[in-house]
Amino acid sequence: xxxxxxxxxxxxxxxxxxxxxxxxxxxxxxxxxxxxxxxxxxxxxxxxxxxxxxxxxxxxxxxxxxxxxxxxxxxxxxxxxxxxxxxxxxxxxxxxxxxxxxxxxxxxxxxxxxxxxxxxxxxxxxxxxxxxxxxxxxxxxxxxxxxxxxxxxxxxxxxxxxxxxxxxxxxxxxxxxxxxxxxxxxxxxxxxxxxxxxxxxxxxxxxxxxxxxxxxxxxxxxxxxxxxxxxxxxxxxxxxxxxxxxxxxxxxxxxxxxxxxxxxxxxxxxxxxxxxxxxxxxxxxxxxxxxxxxxxxxxxxxxxxxxxxxxxxxxxxxxxxxxxxxxxxxxxxxxxxxxxxxxxxxxxxxxxxxxxxxxxxxxxxxxxxxxxxxxxxxxxxxxxxxxxxxxxxxxxxxxxxxxxxxxxxxx
Length: 411
Fold this sequence. Notes:
- There is one protein chain.
- The protein contains 14 helices and 12 strands.
- It has helices at residues 4-16, 18-53, 85-94, 130-134, 146-151, 160-166, 207-213, 232-250, 266-309, 311-319, 324-357, 362-365, 374-400, 404-409, and strands at 60-65, 83-84, 99-114, 117-126, 137-141, 155-159, 177-180, 183-192, 202-206, 219-220, 222-227, 261-265.
- A 6-stranded mixed β-barrel has the order 3-4-9-6-8-7. A two-stranded antiparallel ribbon has the order 2-10.
- Helix 9 (266-309) runs parallel beside helix 13 (374-400) and helix 11 (324-357) packs antiparallel against helix 13.
- The two termini are 34 Å apart.
């Protein structure tokens, strides 16, 4: 229940003991400040992990052919495995329950030229679904579509930085013809990619056109597929295992041979890296809570000293009829008040510090946009109140047990 007299008494006590109150609050404010900054930096580290690993779709398998290291079924070791168009069709047919989409990739470097400007870029021949897997954002025009694949068109989509490199600022690349590797292509779109500059210095073309220009081959360098997200992590790992076995059997690679076919499962990679980031954040939280506890121990010691200092006063109160509960309430209320106010000052300074940091630590320390959420603020509030009670209860209990006659003899 609100007691005006009690609050007046608390403020009078604080006013008479400014240094003691400052030292009490400083330890808590410093603890909360360090906790908030460390927690925010932990979040910043997770943001960097998310940015790095979530650039592409996370339900993705990347499959590469390799060179065998073991003889198998009459084939010698050292054989180069090759993927072809029929691998795409077989996977679509035999893993329809798991598969969401699939695209080939054929990659090479090529010199691109336009009106005297030229540069070398990474040229990728792909299917239309590649844009979804790479989370490509079309800025102008369109991406490669099914018609381009079926008709083997000489259409290309270029990255934002390719357009900047080769075209005037006032000129749009869409509709212009660009020479790439000695062949003229029509630019049908310009894209951007959050993966960074390298991603935006790529050129995409239909994989069927690339195969046609490569003397009608049906070879592909790599396969990229996405699985249905409703199969979950366990389903993705089962799909991973079944697909490895399937491709090894089809291409006559020994089951124990780890080099014949590579399969990179982003679900597994992302999960392991996010677990690492979570462990780091727990370490940070542990250090922060340790700092907070050190602050609470400090204020508890100060409150013990305060109670000792006010022994005679509390004895007089009890002699005049004050109950143990009222004495405990008085000491606790002062402790919680100082802890809460100081803690919020530390919290506000901590949030302000994180805001000032921004992305300045991203380049050197991989900390992106360090922040704390509203759930952390609420939790910090509850922690402050809890620790305020802890800091004040022991000295308050001691104060309540003071016998008036003993207190009056105290010097």
